[in-house]
Amino acid sequence: MRLISKFLMATAVVITGMSVASAQDAKPAMEISGNVAAPLQLTATDLQGMVRSSVSIPNRSGDGIRRYEGVALWRLLDSVGVSTEKLNAKDIAKRYLTVRGADGFEVVFSLAELGRAYAEDEVILADRMDGQPLPASRGSFQIIVPGDLRPTRNCYQVIALTVHETNKGQ
């Protein structure tokens, strides 16, 4: 009887653990909102199902190159109805994107920096580094800006992308 009781307890622990893991994966990991047609919440699984991009940038210590994989920000903006290719130059100039990390750190991009017609390098929301998931210290998502000379806008632990518009009505 005692053996059966221990077996049932162990089975319950395993099943509970599996339910928690599934719930964590389904939980929104980041949000795209603001001046968009359709706000969106994305999980890590959602991001992996999107069209992927990769960029390589020098390691901060200067002793090599890191390869990051993820989704280009322009693709994420397209998915919420903000197409940098469909907006005219005036509308592009009036809009910007803030990226917020879990620690409250925020960085800013003009939409022109993110559009394929305006920028040479793709800024990506990365979820992999050198073929592996990002280290826990960087969170599920990190912004990678390959054209910046210093990595000051490579925001870690990204939880929100927010589209803003300035000079409304002009």
Q: What is the topology?
A:
Blueprint: H1 2-26, E1 30-34, E2 40-42, H2 44-48, E3 53-58, E4 65-72, H3 73-79, H4 89-94, E5 95-101, E6 106-110, H5 111-114, E7 124-129, E8 132-133, E9 142-144, E10 158-165
Parallel strand pairs: 1-10
Antiparallel strand pairs: 1-2, 3-4, 4-7, 5-6, 5-10, 7-8, 7-9
Signal peptide: 1-23
InterPro entries: OxRdtase_Mopterin-bd_dom (IPR000572), OxRdtase_Mopterin-bd_sf (IPR036374)
Organism: Parapedobacter koreensis
Task: Choose one word for the global shape.
Answer: globular
Helical fraction equals 25-40%
Number of separate strands? 10
Major sheet, described briefly? Answer: 5 strands, mixed
Q: Which runs of at least 5 residues are low in confidence (pLDDT < 50)?
A: 6-24
CATH homology-level superfamily? Oxidoreductase, molybdopterin-binding domain
Overall structural class, as computed from helix and strand content, comes to alpha+beta
Mean pLDDT: 83
Which assembly state applies to the chains in this document? single chain
CATH topology: Sulfite Oxidase, Chain A, domain 2
Please tally the helical runs, counting DSSP H or I stretches of 4 or more residues.
5
Q: In order across it, which strands form the biggest sheet?
A: 2-1-10-5-6
Question: What is the CATH architecture term?
Answer: Alpha-Beta Complex
C-alpha Rg (nearest Å)? 20 Å
User: So what's the CATH class?
Assistant: Alpha Beta
